[in-house]
Amino acid sequence: MTKSVMFGAALALLVGANTVMAKPASDGGLPPGLQKKVERGEPLPPGWQKKLDYRRGDYFDRDLLRYGDIRDIGNNRQRIELEDRIYTVIKDTREIIDILNR
Fold first, then answer.
1. Which residues contact 45 (CB under 8 A, 6 or more apart)?
2. What 3-state DSSP class applies to 5?
3. Count H helices, E strands: the chain?
4. N or C: which end of the chain has fewer CB within 10 A?
5. DSSP structure string for 30-75
6. Are 75 and 59 spatial neighbours (Cβ–Cβ below 8 Å)?
7. pLDDT in tens, the chain (102 residues)
């Protein structure tokens, strides 16, 4: 009986030692392959383009800021160029006040 208990405990330790750690949660940004497409100037797939389907009054997603070209334009406003659009946002709140299509 003792041998079987010891064997079971040893087996549990071995199985527990070989567990695989899960990847950390994503940061909410684009996957690496899509990021490379953006850097090359290629369009995103339709599903990802829908995530960029903003309207005036919406709030620009903070995670997407790093993928755009951001410029301060004065009066607490920024211009964000991302994909084929140019967004003008209020710097502090990221509220979209204008959208231009290229």
1. 34
2. helix
3. 3, 4
4. N
5. --HHHHHHHHHTPPPPHHHHHHT---TT-B--GGGGGGSEEEEEET
6. no
7. 566 655 555 555 555 444 444 444 344 456 778 778 777 877 777 666 656 678 899 998 887 887 789 999 999 999 999 877 899 999 999 999 999 987
